[in-house]
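EI: anyone free to look at a 39-residue chain?
SC: sure, send it
EI:
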Amino acid sequence: MILIDDTVISEDVADEFFVCDLTKCKGACCVEGDLGAPL
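SC: here you go
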């Protein structure tokens, strides 16, 4: 597990491949910005 501030994150996030599902996000994760993709 990885601890960031008060949040515990699984180490699997470093190994998993994330892709955009356009049917769900409707392009929201393709918008430029500093906040990253919405989860």
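EI: Strands lie at 2-4, 7-9.
SC: 👍
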